[in-house]
Amino acid sequence: MSIMSKPAGWIAAGQAPADYEFSTDSSVRHGGQRSALVRARSARPAGFGTLMQIIRADDFRGRRVRWSGFIKSEQVEGWCGLWLRADDAAERVLAFDSMQSRPVTGTSGWSSGEVVLDVPSETVTIAFGLVLDGPGAVWLDDVALEVVGAEVPTTKISAATLPSQPQNLRFEE
C-alpha cells in the first residue's frame, strides 16, 4: 500500500480529527492515480472525522448542486458517506444533507454516492466532504461538485415525506 499525506487543498476536521488518518492512497483507487483515504487510528474514536473543503458559493447560489463520488469501505462499524452544506455570512447553516440516512457501512466495494441540495441565494460558502464516524476505513475517488438541473431530485429529507404525527410513543408496536 502506498499511503501519502493529506490531499492538497483538503482540510482534516470533525469532532475528533486526531483520531483519524487523512491521506491519499495510490494502491486503492477507482480511477486516476490516487484515492483519498480516511482511516480510524483506534478502535474507539471519540467522534467523527471528515476530509473536507470550503469554497465561495458564487458559482452555485440559487442553483441545485450535486456532490458525488465513488466510495469503498473496510470494516466501517459506524457509518461513512458524503456530505454537503450551504452557509450564510453569519455562518448559519442554510441547507445540509449527508448520507447518514443512507450510509455506507461494513466492507464494500466501490459504489457511487451523492448528495444533492438546492443552494439558497443568500449562501456565502459551501462546505463538502467525506465523513467517517467510528472504526474502519473509507476511500473516495472520482469526485465532482456540479450544478444540476431540476430534474435531479434533492437527497435532503423533505417535510412532505415525514409523518404529520409522532409514531409509536408507547413503544408497543
What keywords describe this structure?
single chain, 173 residues, mainly beta, 0% helix
Report on this structure:
Strands 1, 2, 3, 4, 5, 6, 7, 8, 9 and 10 form a ten-stranded antiparallel sheet that branches. This protein has 173 residues and is mainly β. The model has no long low-confidence stretch (mean pLDDT 92). 0% of the residues lie in helices and 54% in strands.
Give the topology:
Blueprint: E1 3-4, E2 11-14, E3 20-25, E4 35-40, E5 48-56, E6 64-87, E7 93-98, E8 104-118, E9 125-133, E10 137-148
Antiparallel strand pairs: 1-3, 2-5, 3-4, 4-10, 5-9, 6-7, 6-8, 6-9, 6-10
Q: Averaged pLDDT, please?
A: 92
Rg = 17 Å
**Which parts are unreliable, with pLDDT below 50 for 5 consecutive residues or more?**
none
Taken from the alpha-carbon principal axes, the silhouette is globular
What is the chain-wise order of helices and strands? EEEEEEEEEE
Fraction in helix? under 10%
The first-to-last residue Cα distance is 49 Å
Task: Tell how many strands the DSSP assignment holds.
Answer: 10
Q: What is the beta-strand fraction?
A: over 45%
What profile does the largest beta sheet have? 10 strands, antiparallel
Count of alpha/pi helices: 0
